[in-house]
Amino acid sequence: MSEPLDPDRRAELVAGLAAVRGRLADASASTGRDPHTITLVAVTKGFPASDVASLATLGITDIGESRDQEARAKVAELADRPELTALTWHFVGRLQTNKCRSIARYASVVHSVDRIEVATALAAGAQRAERHLDVFIQVSLDDDPTRGGVPAAELAPLADHVATQDALRLLGVMAVAPLGADPDIAFEQLAGIAARLRADHLEATAISAGMSADLESAIRHGATHLRVGSALLGRRTPTFG
């Protein structure tokens, strides 16, 4: 069983969610977008399963994790809660091929495919689990290998490979704004990359971009999925890691 919900912690999450939803609504209005077309993924890395449960009662059911061991533990801890069956687990961290089979058992959406080997391993894991996964291809906007992502020039062959995997569905592209860069410039670049991908893969209409500090810029440039952690959950000492 997951730990009981702490009323004080729930109040913190209510306040964080209200602030994030307000920012999302304002940014959407300024660009003429419908805020309901934007998925808010709560990145709960480092925080307990009770936070996930509390967020679910507040209407947030898209949950992002970036470490397989931690994600598996939370999924297992919440498995006995029938009211949480609507949770959609997103894996947003860097992928290792030896973790793909495990991730494919619980994640419904994977945001960080950046190599053919990873796509193949995810597809094999999904087939073994008799599941299908929605995936984003992570694009590097600064060619920094430590941050993950495929160079834009190498996106096309990776997208073509993903499209051949029966157990995978290509949603679109994901990126993280380079450190110290203007996020508007970065996400404008990503929007162009996404448009070129759609020319060859009509179904790849989604863009995963924007975190706590730059979600407004991401919305301005067409983000459909926001990955928000600290602005929603705060910066208190995490439970995991």
**What is the overall number of helices?**
9
| Helix and strand element order | HEHEHEHEHEEHEHEHEH
Helix and strand composition category: alpha/beta
The major sheet is characterized as: 9 strands, parallel
What is CATH's topology name?
TIM Barrel
Low-confidence stretches: none
Shape: globular
- How many runs of DSSP E, i.e. beta strands? 9
Distance between the termini: 20 Å
- The radius of gyration is 17 Å
Chain-averaged pLDDT? 95
Find the CATH superfamily.
Alanine racemase
Give the total of domains.
Answer: 1
The top-level CATH class is Alpha Beta
CATH architecture: Alpha-Beta Barrel
Percent of residues in beta strands?
15-25%
Q: What percent of the residues sit in helical stretches (DSSP H or I)?
A: 40-55%
Structural description of this entry:
The protein has 241 residues and is of the alpha/beta class. The chain has a single domain, classed as TIM Barrel (Alpha-Beta Barrel). The chain has helices at residues 7-31, 49-57, 68-77, 100-106, 116-128, 155-163, 183-200, 215-220, 230-233; strands spanning 39-43, 62-65, 88-91, 109-113, 133-140, 150-151, 168-174, 206-208, 225-228. Strand 1 (39-43), helix 2 and strand 2 (62-65) form a beta-alpha-beta unit. The protein is globular, with a radius of gyration of 17 Å. The two termini are 20 Å apart.
Question: Care to give the gist of this entry?
Answer:
This protein has 241 residues and is an alpha/beta fold. It has helices spanning 7-31, 49-57, 68-77, 100-106, 116-128, 155-163, 183-200, 215-220, 230-233; strands at 39-43, 62-65, 88-91, 109-113, 133-140, 150-151, 168-174, 206-208, 225-228. The protein has one domain: Alpha-Beta Barrel (TIM Barrel).
